[in-house]
Amino acid sequence: MNNNNQEIYLKKEVLERIVRAFFSHDFKESARLIPFDMRPKGAEVLCRCCIYKERAVLKDCVIAGLGFAIEDDCETVDLSKYVERSLERGRPEDNPLTVIEAACKGCVPSRIYVTNLCQGCVANLCRKACKFGAIDIIGGKSVIDGSKCKNCKMCIEVCPYNAIVKIAVPCEDSCPVDAIKKNVKGTAQIDYKICIYCGKCIMSCPFGAVHEKSQIIDVLKNIVSCKKVIALIAPSIVGQFPGNVYQLKSAIIKAGFSNAYEVAQGADTAAVNEAKEFEKKMESSGSIMTTSCCASYNQFIKKHLPEIGTFVSDTKTPLYYIAGKVKAKHNDALTVFIGPCIAKKNEVLENSNIDYVINYEELAALFNAKDIKVQDCKEEKFDIESSRQGRGFCITGGVVAAVSKVLETKDLAKLYIINGLNKEAIRQLKRIVKDQKCAEGNLIEVMGCEGGCIGGNATVCIPKVSIKAVKALSEQSKDITEK
């Protein structure tokens, strides 16, 4: 399993218990008892200070699983009230992230720190290496002035005793745009005005303090009310569950969905449109074009680097195209995107053709709660088979490979890949804007997650296993030019 640790297991167990509670004879009471069922009287508590703190955290996990912001929670409000609100809700809440204050450790500030291992050596290599004058020798020991330190880590590299360390705050360090900081209480707080919904804070926090607000109840209540609910499954779903993609379609229908379509079909459309656009840009003396299929990257452009917009493809995402086709064919249906990350929830807010989003963790919870084993389901083919390139969109390099495959001028594109949005990648993108060109290539793929969509925050399979499965399916598929 991806992120194979206790915190992930807890989150998955909460989601599964919520789904089981939904299908029980008394949803409200079953949901209310989840924290007590998971931590009954006398249960061993391994990480928190006491069983009551553990139950408080689990209650907040259930609130997020029901689709609500924990920041708005009143401790005296019973979980059964949240169940009522989830059933009455017309649409999911905005801002898909929420922070469990009770779970947040309130980590010490991130900084470069001189430990007691410092020997006060005569060489003073750390002081000499610092270009900002942040290190002094006081009482025979090195001392860092935090107001001058730029976190360049040169002192760490030169210290012969490894006495200087970087004290890391996982959620803050992982955020490429510094959208998560400590509030006045010392716990994590997300600035949604600059957040790009990359999900890195969810993956990095070892206390499970950052959660995604689930839409699983919104989906289930429409399914049980006998509405036509159609699943749109992302290419990265291949390999996430035992069994093949055709068995997975059958399992999704068995879980209550009316039908399932591959978003890879939309990737085929996106590749063709992006190739045409790239050729036009290059013909009109354009220097570069970046891809536009990653929702997190699109949020980054919008909030942090709008100047790069002239170089970004105007082509819509694969989800945009397949959702439009499905809604045109089934205008009475509700569409649910099933994907690997949180970023798509913001994209969906801007697209009326997509009603809800759930991730692979939530789909796994649904399968487990209904005792559906994908590998035991019969195979069910898709109405239209996606191409080899469309199915490979989810792996690093897959997007530019698909676009270059359908270019009329085969040697026109010089491919370059920015593998995941991190601070170094952002500096690289800013250099591209400044120089108005990229020496490494003219067709640039930018994905928010390292490895591509198979590295999303809500995947349930380690990337190397997922990559192998995606490539195996792709090899069985036709080329996009043969469709």
TrEMBL record:
Keywords: Iron, Iron-sulfur, Metal-binding
Protein name: 4Fe-4S ferredoxin-type domain-containing protein
PANTHER family: NITRATE, FORMATE, IRON DEHYDROGENASE
Classification via NCBIfam families: FeFe_hydrog_B1
InterPro entries assigned: 4Fe4S_Fe-S-bd, 4Fe4S_Fe_S_CS, Cytosolic_Fe-S_CAF, Fe_hydrogenase, Fe_hydrogenase_lsu_C, LdpA_Fe-S-bd, Mono_FeFe_hydrog
Pfam families, per the entry: Fe_hyd_lg_C (PF02906), Fer4 (PF00037), LdpA_Fe-S-bd (PF25160)
PROSITE patterns: 4FE4S_FER_1 (PS00198), 4FE4S_FER_2 (PS51379)
Gene3D superfamilies: 3.30.70.20, Fe-only Hydrogenase (Larger Subunit), Chain L, domain 3
Gene Ontology MF terms: iron-sulfur cluster binding; metal ion binding
Record domain 4Fe-4S ferredoxin-type: where: 140-170, 186-215
Organism of provenance: Endomicrobium trichonymphae
